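User: Can you help me understand a structure? I only have the sequence.
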Amino acid sequence: MEARKRTIVVSLIKHRELEVYALYFEFEYNLKEYCKNSGAFWSQSKNMWYYPTSKITLDELKELYKNKAILDIKNVTTPILLKPVSLSLKEQLTEEQKKHLNQFYTYLKGKRFSASTLKTYCTLVAEYIIHKDENRPIDVRSIEKHAEEVFVPKKSSVSTHRQYISAMKHYLAFINSDLEIDFNALAPRKDKKLPNVLSNNEVLELIRVTKNLKHRVCIALIYSSGLRVGELINLKIRDLDIDRKMLKVQSGKGRKDRYVPIANVILPLLHNYLNTYTPKTYLVEGLEEGKQYSPMSIRKFLKNSCQQAHITKRISPHTLRHSYATHLLENGTDIRYIQALLGHSRPETTMIYTQVRSQDLQKITNPLDLIIKQLENHKKIN
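Assistant: Let's start by predicting it. Here is the structure, written out as tokens:
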């Protein structure tokens, strides 16, 4: 009786700066020896056999194993993986495409978009240009197809998908296309997720376990003033008004300025930080004098602090802002003031915090508690 052939899953990956066909299969001695004798290389770190794509084609690989195993090559033949995965986005663009996208960047800059929006829109349009069939004109179906073949396999967020549709609307206007796309028809609906919120004790513990003075100031400021992480790193020394206990947030989201209060209890911490680090331009600076602190660094040390505080919730710097707003609401602050403190344009955005404050939910009698209470009362009567 002929032995059942093993299945080998083949993937196209980058390994040691090389593009390779990676082979994954359950250990079988004869198959392992065949790989070894056929010129495959073994990677101890990735626990796989592999062939550099410069040494063998996919057809040659299939021929090599046709009598030895069943090759599962769907990871290699997926359209998006056929692109030069070893190259960066910029390296995949032709010189003509780069010039074209630079002109698009200038066009967007003229619309006075923020630096973050400029980068996001140009990146999303560049991806579309790279993956688009050159012989096919831009139409609604090609825009949808790009989302299906790129965003869905990558499990990109709904927010990214919506930004892509918005970027394409601006791109079509830039190239004077006759095509008009309906944003609401093409863009997926926004997620209606409720934000994670820290308890009062968790906030205090998070600050307590953070020993680094600069890191502690960052956490305290984001929470006590309801700052976005981008607003924190953009704060300059001149935006700090110690006498009035205020911070001036300039050009926040939507290019709106606002004043936010500084908590009395962190003023000594802030004085200590300013005397110790003596920042020159920005309130929170990186290693290089006069340069902004990195958002990635904030996320990294916040993650470490959460681990030390034994907080298992999924936390980001924005969670501190959510917690600030929720705690204000729970303490009886009018929703209109919270809207102004957070810099929200629409009250609907602020109203989400009414769904996560605990007092209202705690007032509701759980039906299971009610049943048990009724049962206990019945026993007492009997």
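Now, to help you interpret it: The radius of gyration is 28 Å. DSSP finds 19 helices and eight strands in the chain. Let me know which part you'd like to focus on.
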